[in-house]
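User:
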Amino acid sequence: MEEMDQDIDEEIKKLNNCKPTWTAEDTEKHRRHDKEQKRASAGEHTSLPISLALSNISKETKDQRDMNVRRRR
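Assistant: Predicted structure:
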């Protein structure tokens, strides 16, 4: 019985000497990620609004067409 108590005491000492692997920075990072996930699942957009994203796409395609025209000349 005493031997078991000693084993338990040694195990407790080992655990008390462990350094934390989870930091406050990790907690904040996961908290932000969870908020973004909740927004996304609720239908809120965490990135660009659709109209702005489409305007960026059309601008990119226009720029690409301009580059292709320049190459042909």
